[in-house]
Amino acid sequence: MAHRKRVAEPDRTEKTCASCGRRIEWRAAWASHWDDVRYCSDACRARRVSSTDRELEKTILRLLGERAATSTICPSDAARAIGGEEWRDLMEPARRAARRLVASGDVRITQKGALVDPSTAKGPIRIGRARPNEEQ
Q: The pTM is what?
């Protein structure tokens, strides 16, 4: 009877894409370099995080800081604050910024007042301050 060499189970620590903020799904092809994976796709790797993306993150945090602790904002509030008349082009980058802030534990994303998974949320979302002891 042949003995098979036991292969160590890869570490499948949950990761978040550095660009879009969505959860990265583990793939067998990444098993040998899972620790180095930062992006969920080639598109996110090419897009990376720009200075506008960082500005959107700061704007989201600033807008939340100017409101009551339980208040929320729409991603369009941050897009309008930065983009002026061209704010619509910043809507998806604002949503990505919000997802990255969820991953860092700074904010929470809700729909109709209920927490949602930022990786799968579709439609209108609200961004609020993270609450202690609350998992997104």
A: 0.83
